[in-house]
Amino acid sequence: MKNIMVLMHSDDGQESRLQCALDVARAVEGHLNCLDVAATPIVYDDYVTNYTQAILLEDAVAAERENRLKLEPRLKVEGVPYTWLETSGPIADCIVDRAGLNDLVVVGTHAPKGEPKYGDVAANIVRRVRRPILAVPRTAERIDLFGTALIAWDGSNAADAALRAAMPLLRLAGKAVIVTVGQVERDPADAASYCSRHGVRAEVRSAPGGEPVSDVLLDQARKFGAGLIVMGAFGHSPLREAIFGGVTRRMLERSGVPLLIAS
After folding, report:
1. Is 148-262 in CATH node 3.40.50.620?
2. Alpha carbon of 163 to those of 92, 172, 201, 230: distances in Å?
3. Where do the structural domains in the chain lie, given as residue ranges?
4. Which of 140, 123, 192, 195 is nearest to 21 (CA)?
5. What is the pLDDT of residues 184-223, one digit of tens each?
6. Which of 202, 188, 1, 177 minimizes the C-alpha distance to 102?
7. Is the fold of 3-136 the same as that of 148-262?
8. For residues 109 and 72, what is the distance between their CA atoms, to the nearest angstrom?
9. pTM of this prediction?
């Protein structure tokens, strides 16, 4: 985990995204790719002219120029190597286009507050990017990489992918807990063995089904004081997305700690 891309955009979640990205990059001695997006608004009004859209984009570019002037002095003293990248377009599309050679993509769990025109960025990216996503709540002050990490395990291929992707961070954790909810596809002992072979001791906790999976996972995260939740996303097939997509979306909507999500 060396190339870490973080969404830079002047909204109320930017500070949380940046601080968590810096925490991760510093911990793994990685390089930060700061993708500053001048977002083109999603326009639903047929009467909006090309001229109006051009004006809106011009304003967005100017705002992000100010954003860079504000943040680069800080980045230069953070002690983390970084590259500042500028682009414009729909936020999710820009991230998907640039994600390829990054090991982790840091975004917010929510669209910018008060800016619904930018869409459901995190859920959109999770569906489209074949890279691990670190989704950061706007209330997160930083990410606790050295405390407890909770691994949500259902035995799926996506859970496998998330566990593999998170291993560089799990090695840093003081404690790892594998949590299952109800019936799962494979024995969680498989996940514990995988962790052990990578130098991570993980205990297994099984919670009964019946309650919404997201509620159980968040309750377990609070119980263990988890600073990071690792989970597989809903898959890329329509059926799997219909079955499991609700869990991912609810976790994005409700989690107070960063989520490492992979599919």
Report:
1. yes
2. 24, 14, 13, 7
3. 3-136, 148-262
4. 140
5. 989 999 999 999 999 999 999 999 988 999 999 999 999 9
6. 1
7. yes
8. 24
9. 0.90
**Alpha-carbon distances, residue 208 vs 179, 184, 217 (angstroms):** 10, 11, 11
Q: What is the pLDDT of residues 19-62, one digit of tens each?
A: 999 999 999 999 999 999 998 766 655 555 666 666 666 777 78
- Cβ distance 188 to 204 under 8 Å? yes
Class of domain 3-136: alpha beta
